[in-house]
């Protein structure tokens, strides 16, 4: 219809489609009236030109976060699983920190398992097991220069491990070890190099960390019931390996490590993760911040295609103006670098103009005066 | 062998450390060693630590031998008769001071009934665990610890009679309360410390209620009529000092009325109070800027002036003037000499301070607040018997702070005032509260302390009965008269050309970074520019090289130091601070080139 085509250019496509759905069976006159009203509503909800959206977003988030309880930890479920929440977590997300204080995952499972089938077993298979977890005792045989490891049978049964599996894991971990099995004990001979006692002691400490089973980085697992299904909450995060498991529902499983999401699922997913993480914290503190502020911040962080934190190394270093960068942090570095390449500052943004005492190009400072000369 | 340490330095060894430590203690009690020596036998490391250094917190305890305290009834009688003092008991080895280390070796009983043969010491009393100020807080055992702490801090800030020889002292920033009183509700520490010779508060009638909203959020309402009669009135003293300094070359300062040809001479009006010797007379009413002590100094750059033989007329004016925002009456003039024998003049200026809105008051329980309203007696609420409170205190200050001591003091104060006696409110050993209430009932008042009251403005009876009684209130040394500040235009800093900072320099209030952000958020771009116009300047800029040019005021033309006169020079308006940063960049060897464009 003609009306639709007309408004396709004026309104976002999604709104036009919505109107098309809602006005099915109406006369074209009526549809036109509907469109007029929709269009007026749309125009009046647009942000005015020259509104300092970024600063308002910063103030909206910054002011509310002063009311947050500092350093709150949320305990998920019964067991002592700590998750950083509150201001420290917001800072962590917005700074774009690569190493998190408490990385966690929420693993959703596919149909039979999410009702509780084998949940304990799946959880344990995800948890990382190192040699130290299943070893009872290490003893050093000085004569043969070997290390004898006594394994805990009960623990191994729980994790459904066999001694031969352990043997394979040790062999896989490094070529310099040659383990053998002898009456439920692993006897380990160190190959190559001098077999000094010192060396053997070092090896003894090293082998404690040999990965036996489970997923690397997952230090704790906790199956909990959420609504009417079981999920597994973990301490430690390794999304890539968890996705490989057949029982896992990859469409819903998430981690709180934004960089992991970025590398695995792309920048759009990371942007959504930032929004979700920030909203989650604000919600848990009972603060009401308009989502659009958070959207803007997340967009700013992700606009380059990589996650950039709101720090002097991240978003701020992307600013076009030398003076704006220098006014934030480490001014000398910015000024000297600018001088080296002869940078030019066009004074297009707010802070430079404040420094020069010129009207800032927002709000009332934006429009220029147009006159016709006679 | 046991190692022996004196002030953490090893000095030798001994066979039996425990015995050695005991011997030192015995000698100390006999008086052969200083009572300030403390010794500690550390069993875990088998060493003896002797301490004689400063900075150890020590407290007195009664010595116990074989389960019997050495302090006997006869000592107490002698103490009461004034035959011996506390120091004598220390000398006799009946009471000793322990530091934190020696306390580890002691077993201390709280009460005599608890004594066993193992005990080594006995507490003198529960009050001994507090310092002087905290002991002066009544009913401290009824209030939250943090509030007792604040209460004891408040006592230190109260204005009062801080010493007896204040008339001849030249203390800085001191206030004296005109009619200080002894508290009706007092602890035994008030008697011990001779509080009556240096009290710092007044007993006032307090009603706990809200009235017209002027005492919300820790504010209090004061009775204007009580203030007119002299309640909480104080005098503020400030000394002004001038010295005749001697300089190299035999030149000296000269105290006297400066000649009119002196460099920096103020107007004749400013010197009007000075007598012939250049010092102000007692009783002179002075305002800010008035000269208190006239003085001239020799010229600054001595040698160069000597060469040109221009010594006479170049003495500098260096009088002492009343500070900005102050004034009063000259109270006391002192002419004397300093350590080097130079003439020293000190002038003390007094200023009467009548309580006004914004002055700070506190009870002794950490319930501090500022005056929100001064209300005439005729408008204040009154009780059925016609009592009008001096002070109205907000009940909302009580629940979250849990200062129950405050409420009990109000009741005991009422009892004390009605019965004409002092009430003992010593922490942990106060008079029984139930007995006080009975006494209040027998005096013809409700034992709860509440009374029927009437609205002073409308005359209506309040639906609720009001908790009213007497309390000891202190006026604190923080007064609005010392803090009030305003400015339209005024002095600017030499370097940045921005307004000066701080009240003493008649400074402005800074519109800081975050305040700036609010203007940006509103989009009030031009308002923001106007706010920051305080240091705006117009500078000529050479369009060829982009550097700041020079304006020749005499020739009325600009020229560029680099490009000369034949270049396009335009005036631009920037902040002086930005001109400074350009200069700093230039000094770093960075070339900040300004490229001008037409604005329109």
Brief sketch in words of this structure:
Chain A is of the alpha+beta class and 374 residues long.
The biggest beta sheet of chain A reads: 4 strands, antiparallel
Query: Quick one: which chains have the greatest interface?
Result: A-B, 27 and 29 residues
**Shape type of chain A:** extended
- For the CA atoms, what is the radius of gyration of chain B? 35 Å
N- to C-terminal separation of chain A? 48 Å
Count the DSSP helices of chain B: 14
Strand portion of chain A, in percent? 15-25%
Helical percentage of chain A: 40-55%
Number of domains of chain B: 4
* Gross CATH architecture of the largest domain in chain A: Orthogonal Bundle
Residue fraction in strands of chain B: 25-35%
Which secondary-structure class do the elements of chain B indicate? alpha+beta
What's the helix count of chain A? 18
CATH domain topology of the largest domain in chain A: PTS-regulatory domain, PRD
General form of chain B = extended
N→C terminal distance of chain B = 94 Å
Q: Multimeric state of these chains?
A: heterodimer
Order of helices and strands of chain A: HHHHEEHEHHEHEEHHEEHEEEHEHHHHHH
Which topology of the largest domain in chain B does CATH recognise?
Dna-directed Rna Polymerase Ii 140kd Polypeptide, Chain: B, Domain 6
By CATH reckoning, the class of the largest domain in chain A would read Mainly Alpha
Summarize the structure in words.
The complex is a heterodimer of chains A (374) and B (600). With 374 residues, chain A is of the alpha+beta class. Chain A has four domains: 2-45, no CATH class; 48-102 and 256-318, Orthogonal Bundle (PTS-regulatory domain, PRD), CATH 1.10.1790; 129-213, Alpha-Beta Complex (Dipeptide-binding Protein, domain 1); 332-365, no CATH class. Chain A contains 18 helices and twelve strands. Chain A has helices at residues 2-8, 13-22, 28-45, 53-65, 87-95, 111-114, 119-126, 131-134, 153-158, 163-173, 197-207, 239-243, 258-265, 267-284, 291-302, 322-328, 331-341, 350-356, and strands spanning 73-75, 82-84, 104-108, 129-130, 135-141, 146-151, 177-182, 185-190, 211-213, 220-226, 229-235, 254-255. In chain A, the strands form four sheets. Chain A has a four-stranded antiparallel β-sheet. In chain A, a hairpin with a 6-residue loop joins β1 (73-75) and β2 (82-84). The longest helix of chain A has 18 residues, at 28-45. Chain A is extended. Chain B is of the alpha+beta class and 600 residues long. Chain B has four domains: 2-124, no CATH class; 135-167 and 178-233 and 357-475, Beta Barrel (Dna-directed Rna Polymerase Ii 140kd Polypeptide, Chain: B, Domain 6); 235-353, RNA polymerase II, Rpb2 subunit, wall domain (OB fold (Dihydrolipoamide Acetyltransferase, E2P)), CATH 2.40.50; 488-600, RNA polymerase alpha subunit dimerisation domain (DCoH-like, Alpha-Beta Complex). Chain B contains 14 helices and 34 strands. In chain B, the strands form ten sheets. A six-stranded mixed barrel of chain B has the order 12-26-13-24-23-30. In chain B, strands 5, 6, 7, 8 and 9 form a five-stranded mixed β-sheet that branches. Chain B is extended, with a radius of gyration of 35 Å. The N and C termini of chain B lie far apart (94 Å). The relative contact order of chain B is 0.10. Chain A binds chain B through residues 50-52, 55-56, 58-59, 335-336, 339, 344, 350, 354-366, 368-369, and chain B through 516-518, 520-529, 532-533, 535-536, 573-575, 577-578, 581, 585, 588, 590-591, 595, 600.
């Amino acid at each position: 219809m003609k009306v639709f085509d007309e408004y396709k250019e004026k309104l976002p496509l999604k709104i036009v489609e919505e109107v098309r759905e809602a006005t099915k069976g109406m006369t074209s006159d009526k549809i036109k009236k509907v469109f007029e009203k929709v269009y007026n509503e749309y125009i009046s909800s647009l942000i005015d030109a020259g509104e300092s959206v970024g600063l308002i977003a910063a103030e909206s988030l910054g002011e509310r976060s002063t009311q947050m309880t500092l350093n709150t930890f949320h305990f998920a479920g019964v067991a002592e699983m700590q998750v950083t929440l509150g201001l420290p977590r917001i800072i962590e997300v917005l700074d774009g920190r690569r190493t998190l204080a408490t990385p966690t995952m929420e693993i959703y499972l596919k149909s039979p398992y999410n009702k509780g089938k084998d949940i304990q077993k799946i959880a344990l298979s995800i948890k990382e097991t190192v040699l130290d977890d299943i070893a009872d005792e290490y003893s050093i045989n000085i004569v043969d220069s070997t290390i004898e490891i006594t394994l805990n049978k009960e623990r191994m049964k729980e994790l459904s491990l066999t001694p031969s599996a352990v043997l394979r894991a040790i062999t896989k971990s490094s070529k310099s070890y040659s383990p053998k099995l002898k009456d439920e004990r692993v006897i380990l001979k160190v190959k190559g190099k001098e077999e000094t006692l010192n060396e053997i002691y070092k090896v003894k400490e090293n082998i404690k960390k040999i990965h036996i089973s489970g997923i690397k980085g997952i230090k704790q697992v906790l199956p909990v019931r959420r609504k009417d299904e079981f999920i597994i909450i973990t301490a430690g995060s390794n999304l890539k390996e968890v996705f490989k498991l057949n029982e896992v529902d990859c469409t819903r499983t998430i981690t709180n490590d934004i960089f992991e999401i970025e590398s695995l699922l792309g920048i759009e997913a990371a942007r959504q993760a930032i929004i979700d993480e920030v909203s989650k914290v604000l919600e848990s503190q009972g603060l009401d911040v308009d989502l659009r502020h958070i959207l803007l911040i997340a967009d700013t962080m992700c606009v380059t295609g990589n996650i950039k934190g709101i720090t002097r190394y991240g978003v701020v270093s992307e600013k076009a103006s030398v003076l704006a960068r220098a006014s934030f942090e480490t001014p000398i570095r910015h000024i000297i670098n600018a001088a080296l390449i002869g940078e030019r500052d066009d004074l297009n943004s707010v802070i430079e103009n404040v420094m020069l005492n010129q009207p800032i190009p927002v709000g009332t400072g934006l429009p220029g005066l147009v006159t016709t000369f006679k | 062998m046991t190692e022996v340490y004196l002030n953490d330095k090893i000095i030798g060894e001994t066979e039996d450390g425990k015995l050695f430590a005991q011997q030192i203690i015995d000698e100390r009690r006999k008086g052969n060693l200083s009572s300030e020596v403390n010794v500690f036998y550390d069993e875990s490391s088998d060493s003896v630590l002797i301490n004689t250094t400063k900075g150890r917190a020590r407290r007195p305890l009664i010595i116990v031998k074989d389960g019997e305290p050495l302090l006997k009834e006869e000592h107490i009688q002698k103490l009461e008769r004034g035959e011996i003092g506390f120091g004598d008991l220390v000398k006799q080895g009946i009471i000793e001071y322990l530091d934190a280390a020696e306390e580890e070796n002691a077993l201390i009983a709280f009460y005599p009934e608890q004594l066993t043969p193992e005990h080594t010491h006995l507490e003198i009393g529960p009050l001994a665990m507090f310092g002087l100020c905290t002991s002066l807080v009544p009913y401290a055992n009824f209030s939250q610890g943090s509030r007792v702490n604040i209460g004891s801090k408040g006592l230190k800030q109260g204005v009062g009679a801080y010493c007896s020889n204040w008339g001849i002292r030249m203390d800085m920033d001191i206030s004296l309360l005109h009619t200080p009183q002894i508290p009706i509700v007092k602890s035994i520490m008030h008697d011990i410390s001779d509080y009556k010779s240096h009290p710092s508060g007044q007993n006032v009638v307090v009603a706990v209620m809200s009235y017209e909203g002027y005492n919300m959020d820790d504010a209090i309402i004061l009775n204007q009529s009580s203030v007119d009669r002299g309640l909480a009135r104080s005098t503020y003293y400030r000394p002004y000092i001038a010295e005749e300094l001697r300089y190299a070359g035999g030149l000296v300062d000269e105290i006297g009325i400066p000649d009119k040809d002196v460099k920096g001479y103020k107007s004749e009006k400013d010197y009007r109070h000075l007598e012939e010797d250049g010092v102000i007379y007692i009783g002179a009413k002075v305002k800010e800027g008035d000269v208190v002590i006239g003085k001239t100094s020799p010229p600054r750059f001595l040698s160069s002036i000597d060469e040109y033989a221009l010594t006479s007329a170049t003495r500098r004016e260096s009088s002492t003037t009343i500070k900005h925002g102050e004034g009063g009456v000259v109270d006391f003039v002192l002419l004397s000499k300093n350590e080097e024998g130079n003439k020293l003049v000190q002038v003390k200026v007094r200023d009467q301070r009548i309580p006004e809105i914004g002055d700070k008051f506190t009870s002794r329980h950490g319930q501090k607040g500022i005056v929100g309203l001064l209300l005439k007696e005729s408008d204040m609420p009154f009780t059925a018997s016609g009592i009008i409170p001096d002070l109205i205190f907000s009940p909302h200050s009580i629940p979250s702070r849990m200062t129950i001591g405050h409420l009990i003091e109000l009741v005991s104060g009422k009892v004390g005032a009605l019965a004409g006696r002092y009430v003992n409110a010593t922490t942990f050993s106060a008079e029984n509260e139930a007995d006080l209430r009975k006494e209040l009932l027998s005096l013809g008042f409700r034992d709860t302390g509440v009374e029927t009251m009437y609205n002073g403005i409308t005359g209506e009876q309040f639906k609720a009965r009001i908790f009213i009684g007497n309390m000891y209130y202190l006026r604190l040394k923080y007064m609005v008269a010392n803090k009030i500040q305003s400015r339209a235009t005024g002095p600017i800093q030499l370097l940045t050309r921005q307004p000066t900072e701080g009240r003493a320099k008649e400074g402005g209030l800074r519109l800081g970074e975050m305040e700036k952000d609010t203007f940006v958020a509103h989009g009030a771009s031009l308002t923001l520019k106007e706010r920051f116009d305080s240091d705006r300047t117009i500078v000529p800029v050479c369009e060829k090289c982009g550097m700041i040019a020079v304006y020749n005021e005499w020739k009325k033309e600009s020229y560029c130091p680099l490009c000369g006169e034949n270049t396009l020079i335009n005036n631009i308006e920037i902040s002086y601070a930005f001109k400074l940063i350009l200069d700093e960049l230039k000094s770093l060897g960075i070339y900040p080139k300004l490229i001008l464009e037409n604005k329109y």
